[in-house]
Amino acid sequence: MKILVVEDNERVTQFISKGLREQGHVVDHAGTGRDGLFLASSEKYDVIIMDRMLPGDIDGLAIVEALRATGSKTPILILSALAEVDDRIRGLRAGGDDYLTKPFAFGELAARLDALARRSQGTETKAALEVADLRMDLLAHKVTRGGKTISLKPREFSLLEYLLRHAGQVVTRTMLLENVWEYHFDPQTNVVDVHISKLRQKIDAGFGQALLHTVRGVGYRLAAE
């Protein structure tokens, strides 16, 4: 899944992001209400994790209300240290789909996110991504090609998910560094090339049609050509 985390506490953000990426999810982060509203409005996410209390003049509930006012149906899990019944009711009535109080166990957070994703099938969340006979089941966290299961490491899964979400488009090395590795600078390594090579061996080697293509001097494209 592609998940947006809107949270100003760096330790909480790292805790959530690390756990989700280890499960193979793509994670974006915003530390302020304005940045959170911008990303939530301009990008497409499967689930949004929204901290209720944020710095600045836009808090979590205001973002939720603004998104619902535009017709967005993206599932939103509200995180908050406010645990009173009235606080939870206010969060749900603002448009949140679930409400989890701090502190929390990561396992419970992950289970709630999975439940929200399953509940939203048929609206905005896709259960699977496909190109030709290559299929990624986002809920089962499983990749197959021609019915054959392909075992991927978490980073390879995230890389393939990003490529599948941009199937047919050319994605640059910089796009991959920013969205899969969250590097907002060039680390001067060949980490992208190495992972692309390993991924190509797993999804293309032994199959009749190559799907992962190198666009020389530009980047990569996942497509049936």
When the domains are counted, the total is 2
The helix/strand class is alpha/beta
Are there runs of 5+ residues with pLDDT below 50, and where?
none
The proportion of strand residues reads: 15-25%
Can you count the helices?
8
- The best one-word shape is elongated
Order of SSEs, N→C?
EHEHEHEHEHEEEEHEHHEE
CATH superfamily membership of the largest domain: Response regulator
For the sheet with most strands, the description reads: 5 strands, parallel
Summarize the amount of helix as a percent range.
25-40%
CATH architecture of the largest domain: 3-Layer(aba) Sandwich
User: Could you state the oligomeric state of the chains shown?
Assistant: single chain
**Nearest-angstrom radius of gyration?**
18 Å
* Average pLDDT figure: 89
CATH class of the largest domain: Alpha Beta
Termini separation comes to 26 Å
CATH topology of the largest domain: Rossmann fold
The tally of strands reads 12
The neighbouring-strand order within the major sheet is 2-1-3-4-5
Write the layout of secondary structure elements.
Layout lengths: L1 E5 L3 H13 L3 E5 L2 H10 L4 E5 L8 H10 L6 E5 L4 H9 L4 E4 L4 H14 L8 E4 L2 E4 L4 E4 L2 E3 L3 H12 L4 E3 H7 L11 H13 L8 E4 L3 E4 L3
Parallel strand pairs: 1-2, 1-3, 3-4, 4-5
Antiparallel strand pairs: 6-7, 7-8, 8-9, 10-12, 11-12
Helix pairs in contact: 2-3, 6-8
